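Recall that a protein's primary structure is simply its ordered list of amino acids. Everything else, from secondary elements to tertiary packing, is in principle encoded there. The following example makes that idea concrete.
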Amino acid sequence: MSVFDPLPSPSDIAWAFSAALAGRATLLLRATRQAVTPRKILWTLFWEVPTACAMGLIGLALAQWAGLSAGGATLCIALLARIGPDAIEPLLGHLVPALKKAKP
């Protein structure tokens, strides 16, 4: 069973990646304001691109599941990319046990 049903068009995937990159760019701007070396910035960029792509696909699947329109999907993807995996992991760490307890 596919996560995407039906599969999104290539333009939708490109739009999701660009929205996710825009969401992650806000974190990059904050990192560049701090006193960091060019080597650290390049290392951060090395990890930001795959993170943004992953968050874009997750956000696209979430937006499709929620039935959001194009604008809502873009906002969902950008916000999800902005909070990133560092904030999502603790959230899921609290939600999953609560959902398991509530399961009949």
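The longest helix spans residues 70-102. Residues 10-102 form one domain.
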